[in-house]
């Protein structure tokens, strides 16, 4: 019975997971926000996992945009572009990060 329980946990790939991944984020274009010449701001959000057992973090667009807004002091971002990067070291450690760049709307 114990082996069956361990097998189910191992097969599921995770004992604990609390992560958020990118879905969608609507931002106005630079022309809509009238900020064609504004400075760019960049923000990053990441989630992490160890041994496929424990995962945590928020790699969503909203968290990355909130990071960019807090760094720039802007009210919102326009013309937002996003990149996602993944790092995996033999399943021992994984990291997924979302980086957004956009024009600062004050």
Structural class: alpha+beta
User: What is the mean pLDDT?
Assistant: 82
Largest sheet: 5 strands, mixed
Order of helices and strands: HEHEEHEE
Apparent shape: elongated
Distance between the termini: 61 Å
Radius of gyration: 18 Å
Please bin the fraction of helical residues.
Answer: 25-40%
Multimeric status of the protein: single chain
As laid out across the biggest beta sheet, the strand order is 1-3-2-5-4
Care to count the β-strands?
A: 5
β-sheet strand percentage = over 45%
Counting H and I runs of at least 4 residues, what is the number of helices?
3
How many structural domains does the protein architecture include? 1
> Runs with pLDDT <50, length 5+?
none
Overview of the molecule:
The chain is an alpha+beta fold. The protein has one domain. Helix content is 25%, strand content 45%. It starts with a helix and ends with a strand. The model has no long low-confidence stretch (mean pLDDT 82).
Describe what is shown at a glance:
This protein is an alpha+beta fold and about 110 residues long. It contains three helices and five strands; from the N terminus they run H-E-H-E-E-H-E-E.
Considering the chains and any ligands shown, give keywords for the structure:
alpha+beta, five-stranded mixed β-sheet, 3 helices, 106 residues
List the helices and strands and how they pair.
Layout: H1 2-12, E1 16-20, H2 30-33, E2 40-50, E3 54-58, H3 61-72, E4 76-89, E5 93-105
């Amino acid at each position: 019975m114990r082996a069956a329980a361990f097998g189910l946990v191992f097969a599921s790939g995770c004992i604990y997971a609390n992560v958020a991944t990118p879905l969608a984020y609507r931002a106005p274009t630079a022309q809509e926000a009238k900020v064609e010449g504004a400075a760019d701001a960049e923000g990053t959000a990441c989630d992490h996992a160890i041994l496929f057992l424990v995962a945590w973090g928020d790699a969503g667009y909203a968290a990355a945009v909130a990071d960019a807004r807090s760094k720039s002091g802007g009210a919102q971002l326009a013309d937002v572009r996003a990149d996602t990067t993944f790092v995996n070291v033999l399943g021992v450690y994984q990291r997924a990060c979302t980086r957004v760049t956009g024009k600062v709307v004050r």
